[in-house]
Design brief:
With 366 residues, this protein is α/β, with parallel strands linked by helices. It has two domains: 176 residues, Glycogen Phosphorylase B (Rossmann fold, 3-Layer(aba) Sandwich), CATH 3.40.50; 174 residues, 3-Layer(aba) Sandwich (Rossmann fold), CATH 3.40.50.2000. It is built from 15 helices and 13 strands. The strands form two sheets. The chain has a seven-stranded parallel beta sheet, sandwiched between helices. A six-stranded parallel beta sheet has the order 10-9-8-11-12-13, sandwiched between helices. Strand 11, helix 11 and strand 12 form a beta-alpha-beta unit. Helix 7 crosses helix 13. The radius of gyration is 22 Å and the shape is elongated. The two termini are 27 Å apart.
């Protein structure tokens, strides 16, 4: 699709997970509302999240993440990366973008490399509290390194850093207008393990609730839990045998509504999850993914634990007993839950997309 002649173009480069694509989409929505053309460059995985991405055109390019611990894979990865850079350069020469915005992930590398070689201004948005590998490569060359949290580890000296928050989807912002639900009757627990679910959460949480939450409290619970398909029957049986009402699914398409209805959320601490918990304003128990690059999920969680909105249990320390006792303590005190919900809301940055767009426009005008 041809770019509108009287509108500027921003090319968005984002990696192959929802954690990169969702904030990129929120930014694209805001730029289009300001009259900009938008385009998306990603790889096959990324475009799976982009069926309704607001872009005038989308381009799939080759990308790879070299694994230097397996040196025999490096030449093939280098060929893919160079092919991706060449394709991105041709696209930029054809469409002449005013700006390239990178949202992390290795599929963003070719577009950012092409932009640097062509002298196209670059801005970077880092969702996590630790700068990712690709964003780290281009941080010194970017006109702006925006971040989802105040804390940003691994930032190269001299980088133009500004913490703006993580852009979140409009339905999440709308859910943030819903008051924290009363705690005098049913208590809703929402358990999510990320876009692919989490095996350890599926194993530990049901046993924690069934065996370490007192019966008077347990009968008041309504559990909504994301589970892997292979865990569905086991988890369902545990809840049924313990008399806990539950709704299980491998994927929930109505996340904003689920978050808004929750009295307590148990989740990983990916950047998107932490930012959405803050935007909606819900208390949580966070279990950082132990294998996350640079332990960034632990750093992310501190944005909520630091204001008293969340508890964090490291994956190595999670047991049904510990988790069950913590769930019981939190759900037994409605006033404390409401205070934690308010604390979460205090950490929200609902205007992140607008602020990022404002900075993008200023940089494009320089």
């Amino acid at each position: 699709m041809a770019d509108t002649p009287d509108s500027k173009l921003v090319i968005i480069a984002a990696g192959g997970t929802g954690g990169h694509m969702f904030p990129a989409r929120a930014f694209a929505d805001e730029m289009r509302a300001r009259g900009w053309n938008t385009a998306l460059i990603s790889d096959t995985r990324g475009l799976k999240y982009a069926a309704d991405f607001p872009a005038d055109w989308k381009e799939e390019i080759e990308a790879a993440s070299p694994n230097f611990r397996k040196p025999w894979t490096v030449p093939g990865a280098a060929l893919k990366i160079n092919a991706g850079i060449s394709r991105a350069r041709r696209l930029m020469k054809q469409h002449r973008p005013a700006l390239v915005a990178g949202f992390g992930g290795y599929p963003a590398f070719p577009a950012l490399a092409a932009a640097r070689r062509l002298g196209v201004p670059i801005i970077i948005h880092e969702q996590n509290a630790v700068l990712g590998r690709v964003n780290r490569q281009f941080a010194r060359h970017a006109k702006l390194v925006a971040s989802g949290f105040d804390r940003l580890d691994r930032l190269p000296p001299g980088s133009a850093h500004m913490p703006l928050g993580n852009p979140v989807r409009a339905p999440i912002l709308e859910a943030g207008q819903i008051p924290y639900p009363p705690t005098d009757e049913t208590l809703n627990i929402f358990i999510t393990g990320g876009s692919q679910g989490s095996r350890i959460i599926g194993e530990v949480v049901p046993l924690a609730i069934a065996n370490h939450v007192s019966p008077p409290l347990r009968v008041r619970l309504k559990v909504v839990q994301q589970v892997r398909e292979e865990q569905y029957e086991i988890v369902s049986n545990i809840y049924r045998n313990s008399g806990v009402a539950c709704e299980l699914s491998a994927f929930f398409r109505d996340m904003p509504e689920r978050l808004a209805a929750a009295h307590l959320v148990i989740a990983r601490s990916g950047a998107g999850t932490v930012s959405e918990l803050a935007a909606v304003g819900r208390p949580s128990i966070l279990i950082p993914l132990a294998i996350a690059m640079d332990d960034h999920q632990t750093a992310n969680a501190e944005a909520l634990t630091g204001v008293g909105a969340a508890d964090m249990i490291l994956e190595a320390n999670v047991t049904p007993k510990l988790l069950g006792e913590l769930i019981s303590a939190r759900l037994s005190d409605g006033a404390d839950l409401a205070a934690r919900a308010a604390a979460a809301k205090s950490a929200a940055r609902p205007d992140a997309a607008q602020k990022l767009a404002e900075m993008a426009e200023r940089i494009a005008e320089l």
